[in-house]
Amino acid sequence: MKGIALPHVPASQGVILALVPVMVVLSIIVPLPVIPAMVQAFGGEEGAAFGVSLAVTLPTLAIALAGMLLGMVGDRVDRRTLLVAGIAVFALAAPLPLWIDSLWLLIGSRFILGLALGAMTVAAVGLVGDYFTGARRAFWLSAQGSFPAAATIVGALLSGALGQYGWRTPFLLLLVGIPLLCAVFILRGPAMTPVAYGETPPADPGKAAFEWRPLLSIFVLTIVASFMMFAPAYEFGYVVLEQQVISTVLPGVMTAVLGAGAVMGALAPTALRKTPPERQLALYFMVCAAGQLTVALSVTSVGWVAGAAIIGLAQGAIVPVLSMWLLDRVDEAGRGRAVSVFQTVLYVSQFSTPHLARMMALVADSAAIGMLAYAIALGLLALALGLAVRRRARPA
After folding, report:
1. Which of 120, 192, 242, 392 is the most exposed place for a label (fewest CB within 10 A)?
2. What is the torsion angle, in degrees rounded to the nearest 10, for the CA atoms of residue 351, residue 352, residue 357 and residue 360?
3. DSSP label at residue 182
């Protein structure tokens, strides 16, 4: 079957692949409203506060740490097999907190959950590249950005409501892995590892020569984008507090509005798919800088909420356009390895962003000034990217 391009792949496969990032988002946000209740529930165990914090964040670290290994596995076996295996483990591990009474067993189950999510994420992005080309690839990569953004809003509201009935009840939301597993078996996709552009892969994809150098700029921009675009959102509460506004509702509204903006922003790369990725990135950096500037300089709730919405528009677009750029630069044989490194870089960066944002605010002695510094840096980076694209476009 090698070297044969795939026939038309039904939209149902795209929906399944777009739902995978939703599982990641739900796994991370479900326990957030009940962290204090979890610390209280496990208060009899040594290091309860640290252990609960570890249990909440561990899936993100497990996704990042497992990425490279799982990507190499995906290049040696059918990526769909990796996807199904990941979803099966997720469906079993995700709801275990409903019954676990030991903190360290809870931590272990969350680590296994993270490994499953790592397999699912690497396989899902790679399969979008395998199954779709052109406009359809752009559409489903955008869906992988908009679906989880919408899930962030819904999941946060539902987990908060369910948390009133105990720390375990929000984990009921993670039972969603069971219908997803059923859907994967009922709506069977192509079992072969397809060739997106019709090129003939090497005889042994696992041992094929693979050039990392063309991808380094993407990985570097992924780190920069994660730090500069995602970090300031963690400071919303501090920015509001600096203006003597004592409210937990307003930062929550800003976060929800940011998520709504991200849903809309994730559609932009599809609409601008003919625009070079560097130009798109420059545009999104400028939009994000404008939003950060609005939040940093505003003294009213209207300005803060408007700024959060603008930041969300840029955040929603950034991961899909980086994914499209990556998939356009690699062939089928090395797609799993490239995607796994991309996911590792992305999740490690995003795990670090809250700490970086807090350090920036402490150095500047103000969350608003720290956000202003991010806005200026993003504006300069957007200008540099725009000039680089313009210079490259000039005839020799």
Report:
1. 392
2. 180
3. H
Per-domain boundaries in the chain: 11-202, 213-393
**Residues of the chain by 3-state class (helix, strand, coil), percent to 5:** 80, 0, 20
Q: Write out pLDDT tens, residues 240-272.
A: 888 877 665 677 678 778 888 888 888 888 788
Q: Look-up: residue for tokens 């920069």? A: 224
How many angstroms separate the CA atoms of 99 and 96, rounded?
6
Q: Are 318 and 225 in contact (CB under 8 A)?
A: yes
> What number of other Cβ atoms are within 10 A of residue 284's Cβ?
26
What single-letter amino acid sits at 362? Answer: L
8 Å CB contact between 229 and 314: yes
Domain spanning 213-393, CATH architecture:
Up-down Bundle (1.20)
Q: Which fold has domain 11-202?
A: Growth Hormone; Chain: A; (1.20.1250)
CB 206 within 8 A of CB 72: yes
Q: What are phi and psi of 5, to 5 degrees?
A: -75, 150
Instruction: Please give the angle made by the CA atoms of 120, 183 and 317, to the nearest 5 degrees.
Output: 50
Residues 6+ apart with CB under 8 A from 6: 130, 131, 190, 192, 194, 195, 196
Task: Report the pLDDT value the prediction gives residue 197, as an integer from 0 to 100.
Answer: 35
Q: Which two tokens stand for residue 47?
A: 């290091």
Name the β-bridge partners of 5.
195
Mean of all residue pLDDT scores within the chain: 80
On the question of a common fold for 11-202 and 213-393, the answer reads: yes
Q: How far apart are CA 141 and CA 258, in angstroms?
A: 20
pTM: 0.71
Tokens 């999941």 map to which residue? 155
For residue 195, the cross-strand partners are 5
